[in-house]
Amino acid sequence: MTDHASSARGFDSLAVHAGQEFDPTTGAVIPPVHFSSTYAQDGIGGLRGGYEYGRSGNPTRTALERQIAAIEGGVHGLSFASGLAAEDALLRAALQPGDEVLLGNDVYGGTYRLIARILGPWGVGLRVVDMSDLAQVEAALAERPAKIVWVETPSNPLLRVTDIAGLARLGHEAGAIVVVDNTFASPALQQPLPLGADVVVHSTTKYLGGHSDVIGGALVIADDALAEKARFLQFAAGAVSGPLDAWLTTRGIKTLAVRMQRHCENAQQIAEVLEGHNKVARVYYPGLPSHPGHELAARQMSAFGGIVTLDLGDGASARRFAESTRLFTLAESLGGVESLVNYPDEMTHASVRGTELAVPESVVRLSVGIESVDDLVADLEQALAAL
Ligand SMILES: *Cc1c(COP(=O)(O)O)cnc(C)c1O
């Protein structure tokens, strides 16, 4: 048996091979997509591969779960129907009424909405701090413990960078579970578990899928007992990923490393060109030395990511800019091969308008794709010229 996926192998080898052994019956190099909802039993309880019913387990989903766990440097991978379904399963597995979550102050709006509006009425508390300032985190935890500390780094859309190892230390001293939403960086650039985090969350809809053609989410959990609870919730509540979605995500992950390399190169060049442009008040990109998290990002990440956020001075200019690009498509989401422009205040972050997570109305977020960078720069320059 060939061993393509030994955990001693490098990231790119694991992304291509982990969980992806060829089909033993036919030799098909790409494992088949298993659509079957149920599995024949050799006598009652006589399962051939441990599979009995598609909600509790499906071989295509297992292949994805092993692949994601391997690329995050973790053991337990769990795949879900969406990023928020993954978050919901984790939160309900870890929390009880009366528990609190300490949340970063520019996390994904849907995460805030899930905790505040769905779990809140069931008795889960929520406090918000700037996670990039560990002194604020320490003070908040000293005031009152939290069951979960939840961070996104780089954050959305202002790309604040948090010291994951430092946060894990503070969280653990206070008895909390430290969760990192690693959607923006992807494991190709940053691996929170080896830095001390307990759980990694993904919207695989974004960079892992990578082609804007599938909705999905995942958890990678270090602790056996918490993983078992989350897996029970995955089975008992049933927000699993379907076989075709799991397979598309698996295919996306195989090219993650090379896609991220181009996303990062293009984003860096765009950030450098636009910093200092007379119509741009500020460029947020961790790869710029002017970014407050630049040095930390350089230590913690292998490159700076594919998201660039621009402050265009006022809301009217930001809106006009977002509606003036031609190669950048005006759309929500991020992480696909094609470039997108988003106006957070009325699009991705509309659900946190007027809350402590509100995004300045002068800001637009670019998800920089893998197109020819000269075309991308020219498009942004023509949109700026229209202001
Ligand atoms: C998109 C996103 C989510 C939610 O994932 P869905 O797949 O849309 O449910 C969570 N966190 C981050 C950082 C995201 O960008």
Automatic annotation (TrEMBL):
Q: Which residues form a coiled coil?
A: none
PROSITE patterns registered for this protein in UniProt? CYS_MET_METAB_PP
Which InterPro entries does this entry report, sorted A to Z? Answer: Cys/Met-Metab_PyrdxlP-dep_enz, Cys_met_metab_PP, PyrdxlP-dep_Trfase, PyrdxlP-dep_Trfase_major, PyrdxlP-dep_Trfase_small
Question: What does the entry give for GO biological process?
Answer: cysteine biosynthetic process via cystathionine; methionine biosynthetic process; transsulfuration
**CDD domains cross-referenced by the UniProt entry:** CGS_like (cd00614)
Q: Which family does it belong to?
A: Belongs to the trans-sulfuration enzymes family.
A single Gene Ontology CC term: cytoplasm
Name of the protein this chain belongs to: Cystathionine gamma-synthase
Gene3D superfamilies registered for this protein in UniProt: Aspartate Aminotransferase, domain 1, Type I PLP-dependent aspartate aminotransferase-like (Major domain)
N6-(pyridoxal phosphate)lysine: modified positions = 206
Enzyme Commission number(s) from the entry: 2.5.1.48
SUPFAM superfamilies in the cross-refs: PLP-dependent transferases (SSF53383)
Please report a single Pfam family linked to this protein. Cys_Met_Meta_PP
One example of the protein's molecular function in GO is: cystathionine gamma-synthase activity
Alphabetically ordered keywords of this record: Pyridoxal phosphate, Transferase
